[in-house]
Design goal:
The chain is an alpha/beta fold and 344 residues long. It is 40% helix and 13% strand. It has 13 helices and eleven strands.
């Protein structure tokens, strides 16, 4: 099935109008669930400190240890400003991966989309175990599936706003029982509604394969599914990467602009591009997606972050300089996201 239209928070748009698309971003996310309790007075002081020029460098490497940083939800104007830069530089659409339990706010997404002029595709489903609402954590696969399908077919919380994707569906490593039910429900909802899926794997090279096993057992379509965060999940082993590519899943490198490569297992942009060049040489260009995963304040240009236009401004030109053809860059930025979102 090929969809001629894709749901955005402002309604369905023609697939041909999606243009340059970032498949993995956030505009309202609260990632405070990653925060650990400060262990001493110094950590407590940094946790409660405002974001300043003096602590920005520390913050980039300790992004979940500062209360102000973890809630981008409180910075809508900064988000809008960055999306306007993205649009000015040719960007058209972003896929917003904030799901139920981590401050998904589709009404705020509507306001941000209208103010920025950028299409925003939102998602349904659930993230990591600790963020899944209590009543859902103990729910059956059938119950979870019903919630997702209802949002996809009828709208979110009585509104006319419908998700265009399922996800990002969160899994840890090892995958918890609640996450397994969420994953299976996502597969069933995908099959019944022909909605594309985005998966957040645990940070272990074995995680994507266990996820896909569970997903396929429940009837999920791997070829209509994205495996996110490969730049931190399979950062080095090319043989394992090829084994994953052979499954037909979309392969996403989505930390562009996060230059903390000496913090294992993260990559630099140069290393991301090298991995992408390798996948292209092996014949997988039609399955590669790229994004930034903007999700906290340190990612926004207001706080000296990369923003939403970093790939267009810096990564894509570097790809050209390193020998990636423009036609292949266009596939990663336009054709491949459209193929995923239209269930092609």
């Amino acid at each position: 099935m090929v969809k001629s239209q894709v749901e955005t928070v402002l309604g369905a748009v023609d697939a041909e109008d999606l243009g340059i698309t970032l498949p993995h971003e956030h505009v309202v996310m609260d990632c405070s669930y990653f925060v650990t309790t400060p262990k001493n007075a110094a950590e407590n002081e940094r946790y409660h400190a405002a974001i300043t020029m003096k602590n920005l460098n520390w913050l980039r490497h300790n992004c979940y240890k500062n209360k102000a940083n973890v809630s981008m939800y409180n910075e809508p104007e900064a988000v809008i400003a960055d999306l306007k830069i993205f649009k000015k530089n040719g960007g058209v659409t972003i896929v917003e991966n904030t799901v139920i339990g981590i401050n998904r706010d589709v009404e705020k997404m509507v306001k941000i989309s209208k103010a920025s002029g950028v299409h925003i595709v939102c998602g349904t489903g659930y993230f990591l175990d600790g963020t899944i609402p209590g009543e859902v954590r103990s729910a059956t696969v059938e119950n979870i599936t019903e919630i997702m399908i209802s949002e996809i077919n009828n709208g979110i919380k009585g509104s006319q706003i419908k998700p265009g994707i399922i996800g990002e569906v969160g899994t840890s490593w090892p995958i918890t029982d609640a996450e397994k039910r969420s994953l299976r429900a996502s597969a069933i909802a995908q099959t019944q509604t022909q909605t594309p899926v985005m998966i957040h794997p645990g940070a272990d090279p074995r995680a994507p394969f266990e996820i896909l096993r569970l997903f396929q057992e429940a009837g999920g379509d791997v070829k209509r599914t994205v495996m996110a965060h490969l730049d931190r999940t399979i950062p080095r082993n090319e043989q394992i990467l090829l084994e994953l590519a052979d499954t037909g899943v979309f392969l996403e490198y989505d930390f562009f602009g996060s230059e903390i490569s000496y913090v294992s297992p993260f990559m630099s942009d140069a290393q991301r591009i090298d991995k992408i060049m390798y996948l292209i040489s092996e014949g997988y260009v039609d399955k590669i997606l790229v994004s930034h995963d903007v999700h906290a304040c340190h990612n926004l240009t207001k706080f000296a972050g990369a923003g939403f236009s970093h790939i267009l401004d810096y990564a894509a030109p570097k790809m050209l300089l390193k020998g990636i053809a423009q036609v292949d860059i266009d596939k990663m930025l336009v054709t491949n996201p459209k193929a995923w979102l239209t269930y092609y």
